[in-house]
Design brief:
The complex is a heterodimer of chains A (about 270) and B (about 290).
Chain A lengths: L3 H35 L2 H9 L1 H11 L9 H5 L6 H18 L1 H6 L2 H4 L6 H34 L6 H28 L3 H21 L20 H7 L4 H24 L6
Chain B lengths: L1 E12 L2 E7 L2 E3 L3 E5 L6 H8 L7 E6 L2 E2 L4 H6 L1 E4 L11 H11 L5 H11 L12 H13 L5 E5 L7 H16 L3 E6 L2 H7 L2 E6 L2 E7 H7 L1 E8 L13 E7 L2 E7 L3 H8 L3 E6 L4 H10 L1
Parallel strand pairs in B: 4-9, 4-10, 7-8, 8-9
Antiparallel strand pairs in B: 1-2, 1-3, 1-5, 5-6, 10-11, 12-14, 12-15, 13-14
Classes of the chains: A mainly alpha (about 270), B alpha/beta (about 290).
């Protein structure tokens, strides 16, 4: 089902960007660990008392951070930190738009789609690379946390619990990758694919943010994929969020399958 | 045996009919020219044959297989170059050919090297630093390197200099001599005339002529001029096949359509001081096809 040459080429094309993003994410999380050690807990609580900051974190992390007193609670912020999310989302959109819409946009799909590789194999090969690299990038957050806690001597942090949070992050990114691959498979222009894929992230964040202030939006919460990303709830309940993981992966799989069907049937007119 | 066969092949883009029920029959071992003005439907037809487009209606069979259902199997045995060659700009030529070779299952590096030498191309530069002609050469090497049974080339000579064009013509003739088939689109008549055994002319999505070059040549117009030693042009009885263009200072200019023998017999009956008979000029014939 895979084409080794295409797999290798895609991996080689995106590995440098992945490495740069991985170093930035892991490096930032290590620094975040040191910052957490340096800033007194009381100071953080003062910041979290500010309503808009509190709402912002509820929107990103799925629960009120002030409910938490565990050491993992503060560290789980990195899994929702805007910088980490920006890097993850940017990488995910770059690769998923580049592997399909990017090929059409720059005209190289004429070469790729006339090689003796079925469109299904093209889609599966580039999707595998997209998913593997995106998931590996998510684990850089956990790796940074592990390195950071080892360096700062914060041995009370249970890395296993953060690994569950990381699985939730991976599921959210699988969902986003599936969606962006669908958009990419449908698009002629890479910029358009990125814009449409980003639209769903923006929509999800807006719904999650506004519903903390405006309960009338609560019925729409299920349409936001961030509703199913709840790092603080995982830390608070110390439980696997099975239903959320399943929902995120199911949405991702449905979008991915739709993308496969679209790519198999679509036309590539001359540009 | 037919290598390409289409039946009532059509392609619509909304209300635009890019192809309108074409029947194309390309025999094995031929160099088949596909002629037509820009936007006539040549590229659309070729893209359907290699599986980049799905026809709206009709059937296409390539190497005896259905062009849509068995597209992947067909592409193993076909080499295609699109009209506007776009390649991975960040790769070197060598890396691109290695990727194409590996994606096809390998085994064509030796032929790639032979073609590289023939086309005199430096493969160690990044493609973004290549000129348009160099990219075209690289695209041709990628299309030819696995020695495909069928070559589908969409205006392959547009950016090539005359020497490289000649090299390509030699390669295509050699391929045809080995029993391989070439479908070659162009809007340059001289190229098709020089290279092809058979030609199809497409206009507004329809095939308006599909014939051997020799047959078309017989229908083509010759420019004939002569000067009478005695007598006057006004007294001449012009045969049906000729159209008088002008008579000036005793010089008669006319165009002649068809076989040359009746022309020679007719001219032999005159007392001529001077005469010239041009070669059959397909240009006029094709221009007429394009316009009507």
């Amino acid at each position: 089902m895979l084409n080794p040459a295409l797999l290798k080429r895609t991996l080689r094309d995106y590995l440098p960007i992945w490495a740069a993003a991985a170093i930035m994410i892991a490096g930032f999380v290590v620094l975040f660990n040191f910052a957490m050690q340096a800033i007194p807990r009381q100071q953080t609580e003062v910041w979290l008392e500010i309503p808009w900051i509190r709402r912002f974190f509820v929107a990103l992390a799925g629960a009120d951070a002030l409910e938490l007193t565990r050491p993992e609670g503060m560290l789980s912020f990195v899994f929702s930190h805007p910088l980490v999310w920006t890097l993850l989302v940017a990488f995910c959109l770059t690769i998923s738009s580049g592997v399909l819409a990017g090929e059409v946009d720059r005209g190289t799909m004429d070469l790729l789609a006339t090689l003796p590789i079925s469109r299904s194999r093209i889609y599966i090969s580039v999707s595998i690379v997209t998913l593997l690299l995106t998931i590996a990038l998510c684990w850089m957050v956990w790796l940074g946390a592990w390195i950071g806690t080892s360096m700062t001597g914060a041995t009370e942090v249970r890395m296993r619990l953060l690994a569950v949070v990381c699985c939730n992050l991976c599921a959210a990114m699988v969902c986003l990758s599936g969606w962006s691959l669908l958009v990419s498979a449908m698009s002629e222009r890479r910029g358009m694919a990125v814009a449409v894929a980003f639209g769903i992230i923006f929509y999800s964040f807006v719904i999650n943010f506004l519903r903390t202030m405006w309960p009338a939006l609560e019925p729409l919460a299920f349409t936001s994929y961030l509703t199913y990303y709840t790092p603080l709830v995982i830390i608070r309940d110390e439980a696997w969020p099975w239903s959320h993981l399943l929902i995120l992966i199911a949405i991702g799989a449905a979008c991915w399958t739709a993308g496969l069907l679209v790519l198999r049937r679509r036309d590539f007119p001359a540009r | 045996m037919l290598v390409i066969e289409t039946q009532q092949l059509s392609k619509r883009y909304g209300s635009i009919r890019a192809l309108d029920g074409i029947d194309l029959h390309v025999p094995a071992g031929s160099i088949y020219g596909f002629l037509g003005p820009n936007g006539a439907g040549k590229t659309t037809a070729m893209r359907i044959l290699v599986g980049l487009l799905r026809p709206s209606t009709g059937r296409a069979s390539v190497l005896g297989m259905d062009a849509i259902r068995e597209s992947t199997t067909i592409r193993k045995r076909v080499g295609y170059q699109s009209g506007d060659v776009r390649l991975y700009e960040w790769m070197t030529g060598r890396r691109l050919l290695a990727f194409v070779d590996a994606a096809r299952g390998g085994g064509s590096q030796q032929e790639a090297e032979r073609l590289r030498a023939r086309f005199d191309l430096n493969l160690d530069r990044r493609i973004r630093d290549y000129s348009r002609g160099m990219k075209q050469k690289l695209g041709l090497i990628a299309a030819l390197m696995h020695r495909p049974e069928l070559l589908i080339l969409d205006e392959p000579t547009t950016a090539l200099d005359p020497l490289v064009q000649q090299t390509l013509y030699d390669e295509l003739r050699a391929a045809a001599d080995q029993g391989r088939t070439v479908l070659f689109s162009s809007h340059t008549l001289s190229e098709v005339e020089l290279l092809c055994d058979r030609v199809a002319i497409i206009r507004s999505g329809k095939i308006i002529e599909d014939n051997h070059i020799e047959t078309l040549r017989r229908r083509a117009v010759r420019r004939v001029s002569f000067r009478l030693r005695t007598g006057s042009a006004a007294e001449l009885q012009f045969p049906e096949r000729c159209i008088l263009q002008s008579t000036q200072d005793g010089m008669v200019s006319l165009s002649w359509t068809g076989e040359i023998q009746p022309l020679l017999r007719w001219m032999a009956g005159m007392d001529l001081q001077d005469a010239s008979i041009g070669p059959p000029d397909l240009e006029d014939l094709f221009t007429a096809y394009y316009r009507t």
